[in-house]
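Colleagues,

For the teaching module next term, I've prepared a clean inverse folding example: a structure given as tokens, and then the sequence designed for it. I'd like students to try predicting residues themselves before seeing the answer, so please don't circulate the second half yet.
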């Protein structure tokens, strides 16, 4: 049951989204060195991912409840779960192939070297925390980032209709890319474009779990390959 006026809750939701965007941009512009240092420690990466993921879940759950909505109202439905899993996993694989074969190589060829090259990938991946890293990657990247993306899309759409949806798609993908500034210009652009693709997976049939499973599959492939390639190289 809604306990606050819908428009008021919607304004608060948009305000929270704006604040998160400002924080993300400021952190990646002014504190990039701190972000790079985070990647020197797997436990630190896991802790930061867990905390940011929990924030998203708590914020979205509270704001939906205040507006009288449930997760099902924004597309999180269990009907056809296995079909959503298969469809999402396939989209995740296709997006990974597109990024690996087209997006990243082209962008790396025409843009300056990535700042992310400063990260010691061997040190990051050569760890006994592989199962934990997989779980936190699926939790934060697969579930929480797509929950946040779906929330943004639906809030802007409720506030401004189709124009708001388009604006949310563009702005959320730009901020998503900005959140990976440590990977350099090419990394930011490719991640931003990947964000657009994940959003389109959701918008295809408004099945949020398809986007979650697509992102989870994409991340899982990256993590497994990372441990295979870099394990033992630190």
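(Answer key — instructors only)
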């Amino acid at each position: 049951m809604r306990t606050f006026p819908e428009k008021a809750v919607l304004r608060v939701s948009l305000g929270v989204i704006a604040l998160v965007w400002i924080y993300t941009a400021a952190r990646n512009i002014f504190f990039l060195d701190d972000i790079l240092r985070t990647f020197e420690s797997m436990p630190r990466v896991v802790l930061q991912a867990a905390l940011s993921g929990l924030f998203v879940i708590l914020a979205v759950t509270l704001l939906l409840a205040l507006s009288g909505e449930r997760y099902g109202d924004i597309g999180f439905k269990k009907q056809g779960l296995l079909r959503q899993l298969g469809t999402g996993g396939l989209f995740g694989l296709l997006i990974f192939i597109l990024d690996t074969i087209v997006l990243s190589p082209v962008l790396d060829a025409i843009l300056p070297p990535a700042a992310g090259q400063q990260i010691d990938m061997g040190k990051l991946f050569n760890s006994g925390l592989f199962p934990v890293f997989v779980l936190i990657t699926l939790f934060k990247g697969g579930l929480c980032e797509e929950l946040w993306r779906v929330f943004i899309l639906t809030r802007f759409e409720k506030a401004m209709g189709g124009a708001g949806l388009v604006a949310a798609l563009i702005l959320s993908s730009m901020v998503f890319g900005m959140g990976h500034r440590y990977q350099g210009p090419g990394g930011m652009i490719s991640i931003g474009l990947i964000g657009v693709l994940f959003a389109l997976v959701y918008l295809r049939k408004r099945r949020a779990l398809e986007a979650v499973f697509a992102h989870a599959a994409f991340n899982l492939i990256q993590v497994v390959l990372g441990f295979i390639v870099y394990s033992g190289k630190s």
